[in-house]
Amino acid sequence: MSFERIGIVGAGAWGVALANVIARAGRTVTLVARDEKSATAITVNRESPHLAGVRLDERVGIVGGGRAADYDAILLAVPSQHLRAAAAALDPALTSDIPVVACAKGIERGTRKFMTEVIAEAAPAALPAILSGPSFATDVARGLPTAVTLACADDAVAKSLAQALGSATFRPYHSRDVRGVEIGGAAKNVLAIAAGVVVGRGLGASAAAALTTRGFAELFRFGKAFGARPETLTGLSGLGDLILTCSSAQSRNFSLGLALGRGQSAKASHAEAELVEGAFTAPVLVEMANEKRIEMPIATAVAAILDEQITVDEAIENLLTRPFRAEG
Predict the structure, then answer these.
(1) CA gyration radius for the chain?
(2) Is residue 188 flagged as an active site residue?
(3) pLDDT tens sequence across 2-46
(4) Where do the H-state alpha helices sit in 123-265?
(5) Out of 37, 113, 188, 292, which one is annotated catalytic?
(6) Cα(37)–Cα(33) distance, rounded to whole angstroms?
(7) Which residues contact 6 (CB under 8 A, 6 or more apart)?
(8) pLDDT at 68 > cutoff 70
(9) Is residue 6 helix, strand or coil?
């Protein structure tokens, strides 16, 4: 199974980062921008406006129009709420042996579909897969060591694709637990907003550690209820990604929480949060949890803050006055 020609749909920060690292792995990479104007600008400057200061590898080809064809594998590096449109725009001649890999971390609003489910609906001929894990675009683009998880229902495809995309500094671990990888990526974004609130409110390092730990308990309960494997939830795409995004302002989700904790209104924060996946995922995650009676007080508080149902201080008070209970 050979994956020599890789197409990446989406010329934002993550698309450029993946293009760079895959080019370094020796594959033929083409970055597919949404239109010809964007493709021309990136071709001339060899830099994406979404990842300033990071030069695009000279071996990366660039095309416009948002349509991907003639590749051995296609990576969709677009935000979760735009993934359906990107998948639907793939070449109709796409065959079932070509993996289409979601590189977004979220759940589609309205349908409550995970990313591979969206791909399966929008591009029925595709073989859906998911790439997720603790990774900042700048680190990956610059060639700093990063480890992620690549999951596909076909274990042989997952293994071969991980080997094709991987290198000394970018290590994809392969898995068949597609749902577990998707849940880890989606839930941690919501919890990272809460972590940012804690830091922004100046509640201290102890509170931040407690929030991250109890947040992981929520992620684990949700994942278990939806069939995720425990080793996936405690691995790179679950606990690993949660630790990263709950501890750094490089995370857009953490930065949103930081702004909220420092007093910025949820309405003003939303205006700046187009690419903050957790802001879109929070209400969907809570709806899905409530339907299965999964207790997720931190995620619920985040969704309520973003919807301006409660203030940050009210959310903190509600969490701190919950009944004492056994850990678990």
Answers:
(1) 19
(2) yes
(3) 899 999 999 899 999 999 999 999 999 999 988 888 888 888 888
(4) 137-141, 155-165, 178-200, 205-225, 230-233, 241-245, 252-261
(5) 188
(6) 9
(7) 22, 27, 28, 29, 30, 71, 72, 73, 74, 75, 164, 165
(8) no
(9) strand
Q: Is 47 exposed, middle or buried (0-12, 13-18, 19+ CB in 10 A)?
A: middle
- How many residues can be counted in the chain? 328
* Mean pLDDT over each residue of the chain, to the nearest integer: 92
Per-residue confidence (pLDDT) for residue 271, from 0 to 100: 52
| β-strand pairing of 146-152 with 127-132 | antiparallel
Burial call 250-276: b when 16+ CB within 10 Å, e when fewer: ebbbbbbbbbbbeeeebeebeeebeeb
Rounded to 5°, the CA angle 20-66-254 comes to 60
The DSSP bridge partners found for residue 76 are 9, 102
Higher pLDDT, 44 or 290: 290
pLDDT in tens, 248-286: 999 999 999 999 999 988 776 665 556 689 999 999 999
Kindly state the tokens that stand for 245: 């995004």
pTM above 0.90, yes or no: yes
Q: Are 306 and 270 in contact (CB under 8 A)?
A: yes
Buried b (16+ CB within 10 A) or exposed e, 164-179: bbbbebbbbbbbbbbb
130: Cα separation from own chain's centroid = 10
Q: Using an 8 Å Cβ cutoff, are 161 and 150 in contact? A: yes
For the stretch 149-203, pLDDT in tens is 999 999 999 999 999 999 999 999 999 999 999 999 999 999 999 999 999 999 9
Dist. CA 204–CA 101, nearest whole Å: 39
Place of tokens 């969709």: 76
Give the per-residue pLDDT at 320.
87
